[in-house]
Amino acid sequence: MGPSSARNQQPTERNPEPELDPEAHDPAPREECGVFGVWAPGEDVANLTYYGLYALQHRGQEAAGIAVSDGRRMVVFKDLGLVSQVFDEQVLSSLKGHLAVGHCRYSTTGSTTWENAQPTFRTTATGSGIALGHNGNLVNTAELRDEVAARRTDARGERRAIPASTDSDLITELLSATAADTGVEEAALRLLPRVRGAFSLVFADEQTLYAARDPHGVRPLVLGRLERGWVVASETAALDIVGASMVREVEPGELLAIDADGLRSSRFAAPEPKGCVFEYVYLARPDTTISGRSVHAARVEIGRRLADEYPVEADLVIPVPESGTPAAIGYAQGSGIPYGQGLVKNQYVGRTFIQPSQTIRQLGIRLKLNPLREVIRGKRLVVVDDSIVRGNTQRALVRMLREAGALEVHVRIASPPVRWPCFYGIDFATRAELVASGLDTEGVRRSIGADSLGYVSVDGMIAASEQPRSRLCAACFTGEYPIPLPEEARLGKHLLEELAVPRDVSGAASGDPGPLAVGYGAADALGRP
């Protein structure tokens, strides 16, 4: 076979860009991506990666892709849509090799386009290929973009276009540019210390699988062992589904390389752990373990602490399924109030590709949740949810429960008020859109129409994670960002108070969308209306 090539699937009528998210009226906080990698000669690595991505589907539902190498050639297959829509048996059977990199994506600023689907791919000057999947968000995208632009400018001053508009693509471009001279491993050790922000990376050339985690370890990344190989994944649940045993977490600031010579570990930066506490609250699957702590157990404990912090006289505790269920169980245990199912969720409402009529659209939350009237009627309810972002979902929910006959509706939230945007890989909203940034708890209670409202405290949430506070990032709740946000990107703390109008260094309003327009994540929060 010849040198590496990438075979990419263009958008099809079968998988057009999603037209409606049933949660579009109040989208939940969105984790950007799930990553998966496997090195296992003799195994069907494409199928293993498919199932691994299936287990990580909750982390990204807009695009999916798998890159496979047989040692001589790398093939990339990706498209818009869910993992089960992008891949079928025929496609998977054509992806032959001994190592694979997989990715499922949520776009935030970077558009929902085929070009921005991952794994990203580059061919180096020596003809070898590099495929890369990224979970997280960088804060020095502008700096990296300028470096790529300089490399793509020829002697006449003409610049070749950058094919995609994500920070992940910039990392791949810079890796491939350096790897031609040094090899991929050395290129990564040179590049990664200059990359700032949150990144859990899985990438590969024809022979070797690599995994790297930023020095703060913001996003999770774990290493697993197969009988005939190794697996790296965003969550332990993805190891479980492919029958891999958990070995350990990839350490913050660590680069792993896995090939025929075995597993090698290198350090590219000193670890300064700041794991995302919101993984425990909402983002990760409940059957995942992070830093030795069961996510389900953490959520149940949050519910118990919520019952202690915000007790109320009521007849029934019900969750907003599914993400509110463990905390509701904990609230019932802590309060002694019976637990029940008062809401039924349509399990098949994800991102639909069918545009509903205006009549159906007005049903809003009923597309997703429906009350069990015989359970709710005449009851004083405690309704447990994972978070409040804009408040629209809770407002519709409270109204729906009252219409179903609830006497009282007391809302309890298994996270503190979300008051700040995330710049490390969660797409919340702009600060102006976050209901808790402009209203106190009583104001939010009135806004959603509840009889009472209580959020778990930051201390209670952190205690439930069983991690030291010093090792966690809780910036979306506290505004304390552990990774500095660069002034040149106009992300300084003083500007987070004035999100509506981007300003230049003199303080004057600026029409420039800002240097982070190429990036994705919440980095464009300053420029959104």
Automatic annotation (TrEMBL):
HAMAP family in UniProt: PurF (MF_01931)
Sequence ranges of Polar residues compositional bias: 1-13
Cofactor: Mg(2+); [4Fe-4S] cluster
GO BP, sorted A to Z: 'de novo' IMP biosynthetic process; purine nucleobase biosynthetic process
Residues annotated for [4Fe-4S] cluster binding in this entry: 276, 422, 473, 476
CDD domains: GPATase_N, PRTases_typeI
Keyword presence, Protease: no
Protein known as: Amidophosphoribosyltransferase
Function of the protein: Catalyzes the formation of phosphoribosylamine from phosphoribosylpyrophosphate (PRPP) and glutamine.
Domain Glutamine amidotransferase type-2 per the UniProt entry, residue ranges: 33-261
Family matches, as Gene3D superfamilies: 3.40.50.2020, Glutamine Phosphoribosylpyrophosphate, subunit 1, domain 1
Primary gene name: purF
Region (Disordered): 1-31
Keyword check for Metal-binding: yes
Record's signal peptide: none
Involved pathway(s): Purine metabolism; IMP biosynthesis via de novo pathway; N(1)-(5-phospho-D-ribosyl)glycinamide from 5-phospho-alpha-D-ribose 1-diphosphate: step 1/2
Domain of life: Bacteria
Catalytic activity: 5-phospho-beta-D-ribosylamine + L-glutamate + diphosphate = 5-phospho-alpha-D-ribose 1-diphosphate + L-glutamine + H2O
Cofactor note: Binds 1 Mg(2+) ion per subunit.
Keyword entries, A-Z: 4Fe-4S, Glutamine amidotransferase, Glycosyltransferase, Iron, Iron-sulfur, Magnesium, Metal-binding, Purine biosynthesis, Transferase
Residues engaged in binding Mg(2+): 323, 385-386
Organism whose genome encodes this protein: Pseudonocardia kunmingensis
Enzyme class: transferase
